[in-house]
Recover the amino acids of this structure.
């Protein structure tokens, strides 16, 4: 039996909420959507290839966040997510996502992630995304770019005595 998500949500204030559990990392627009709301066409090859690298998976974590809603009168049009995680193997890290809502339909977002691995072959890897999203009740358009360091390849290169890093990019 695999427990995919167990999360406790706590509202600390109007502008800050907390999740403790095993939620998805907020790395990119695809990870922000609920699995059941994500259409097949929205499931990108780029995000699928980032999963084995540790960028778009679930991890035991503590997350502080605020999801902007247009009906929140008086609040600034900003949403954010900040997650600290430690997975069941030897991984740990931090993910941040910031979204600015230009209008109720248009938003600009960016995500940054640093992840590390301890153990026999320690390494640190970085990734970033940026996206422009147009979303109404009837349509959705997302233009997203991703760049991510491959921690598995970095470990392999370290074992060979090389010091370079390997990055992947996609849109």
């Amino acid at each position: 039996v695999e427990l995919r998500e167990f999360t406790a949500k706590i509202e600390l204030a109007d502008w800050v909420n907390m999740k403790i559990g095993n939620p998805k990392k907020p790395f990119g627009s695809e990870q922000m959507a609920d699995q059941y709301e994500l259409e097949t066409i929205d499931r990108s090859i780029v995000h699928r290839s980032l999963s084995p690298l540790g960028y778009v998976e679930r991890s035991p974590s503590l997350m502080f966040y605020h999801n902007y809603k247009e009906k929140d009168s008086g609040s600034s049009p900003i949403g954010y997510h900040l997650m600290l995680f430690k997975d069941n193997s030897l991984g740990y890290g931090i993910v941040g996502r910031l979204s600015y809502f230009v209008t109720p339909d248009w938003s600009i977002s960016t995500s940054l992630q640093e992840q590390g691995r301890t153990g026999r072959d320690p390494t640190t890897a970085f990734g970033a995304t940026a996206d422009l999203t147009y979303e109404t009740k009837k349509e959705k358009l997302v233009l997203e770019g991703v760049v991510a360091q491959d921690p598995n390849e970095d470990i392999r290169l370290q074992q060979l005595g090389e010091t370079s890093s390997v990055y992947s990019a996609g849109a």
Remarks:
- The mean pLDDT is 81.
- Helices lie at 29-32, 45-50, 151-159.
- The beta strands are 7-13, 16-21, 61-66, 78-86, 91-101, 106-117, 123-135, 140-149, 167-170.
- The radius of gyration is 17 Å.
